[in-house]
Amino acid sequence: MTDFPPPPELLVWLAGHLPGPVTAADWPWPRATSRVWCISGPDGAFAREVAGYAYAARYLPERQAPRLLASDPGLRALLSTALPGRVVRGLPLERAMELRLHQDAGRLLRRWHDHSYADTADHRAAVREAMGTYAREAAQCREALAGQVPDHVLALVDAAAAEIPDLADRLPLLFLHGDYATRNWLIDTTTGRHGLIDFEQARHGLVVEEFVWLLGALWPTRPDLRNAFFAGYGRPLDAVEKWLLLLLTVRLGAFYLHAGLREGRADLQERGHLALGRMTAGPLRS
Fold first, then answer.
1. pLDDT (tens digit, 9 = 90+) per residue, 231-259?
2. Quick check: pTM over 0.70?
3. Domains defined along the chain, listed by start
4. Is 74 exposed, middle or buried (0-12, 13-18, 19+ CB in 10 A)?
């Protein structure tokens, strides 16, 4: 055994891909150059998805969320009803249907949030752990990105590293869908009816976590869809929520760019530059 600890950037990378805190134990072949680790973390994805199905069954109409018919934790198997429609992401839609869809999506998410049950000390601790990880990740990315991006972008990455945990502590927790992106929205184009799938990330968290993908990938170039979404949601974000959402999205863009540079992946570099460029646009910072 080499007793070689994993580098900090590896642990940050793992935390970005696995739910909850992770640990790594040295697990190499019996030679000095071997670098293998056994990764441990909470096996909560199956339980979260079952809980998400149960929550959806209580509070969302059957036509808008599938119903869980059976589950087996030993087999890690789920059996659910089918939900009519096609996945929205990448689907060409007429603008009027897009606007109606995003308003419906905002309305459906508000219905989900409005039935959120009380959080616990454990929920708050988990959110603090996640936000602390994001802040540390932003700090590490900032060092790697110096000289790669303009100073005003670095300033936002600095802000993400310094401010995310404190901002998060100022906000209440809600029960989240956890992956409210268009890849988990369905639309029946014959009826215009909107549905929601994939409850694997359902958990308590901050409301702005629901919007990071939407802000990073969609809303900067389609403010009309953002406006329609929040018209359906029924309230705008307050100043603290807006700033935290922007910083969380900056953190994600910095992560993509850092990973792309480290791994020589042009796709991640492009994704990171695009997200960071959008987040430094004037209107988004107001």
1. 999 999 999 999 999 999 999 999 999 99
2. yes
3. 1-42 (no CATH), 88-285 (3.90.1200.10)
4. exposed
